[in-house]
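User: Thanks for the earlier help. One more: tRNA (guanine-N(7)-)-methyltransferase. Can you show the sequence and predicted structure together?

Assistant: Of course, both are below.
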Amino acid sequence: MQVTQETIFQDIPELQWVESRSEGARRAIKSYVLRGSYLKTFQVEAVRRYYATYGIPFRQELLDYSQVYGNDNPLVIEIGFGMGTATSRIAKERSQFNYLGLEVFLSGFTKLLDVVGREQLDNVRLMRFDAVEVLRSMIPDNSVAGFHIFFPDPWPKKRQQKRRLIQEPFASLLASKLVKGGYIYCVTDWEEYAYQMLEVFKKTETLVNPHDGFAPPVPWRDTTRFEEKGLAKAHPINEVWVEKR
């Protein structure tokens, strides 16, 4: 059985909130393009069973982390978690952190929601909304322990590269949300984009690269489907790790 987005939206209106602009406003450049998707029965059931507990709707107000998670553990935000395999593993292995996953694609969002709900990963919450708007409106400054950005869309064509997520304004926004000593951890299989990341973070005054270049692999990061595809094409996997001064 397959259910369309429109069917599930009737029950969970929060999942309609994917645009980052008000009605009638100019469309902002986003780092993603929404595509239609179909949900299987288990994905629909995941939303109905678990969204109220593990999902967070977008609001124009700052999150109170202790209220959301029931503890004062440091928060890590993952932007674009895809199918969520790395997210769930990291959340289980590094349970001393709370995790907020941001993903606009409904299929991946519901698949991770199913895992989080069935395994009762109480240190994970999920949002389906544009990351820039979430950071600006809901995340207090100087409050985030780390950001994970694994295999963001490289937008390889030159005319598309303005859509890349890692650019100077976004890097400054990330840095403003980090606590002192907090980190940004990016991974990509697109080498030219990896070098762009290094340059962008180098220009962000409050960030420092402790490796003076690419970082060594971090053992607690799981291999993702995008990474497997990159390796199959003999793409180098480059990791970038920077910290707030």
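User: Great, one quick takeaway?

Assistant: Residues 41-54 form the longest helix (14 residues).
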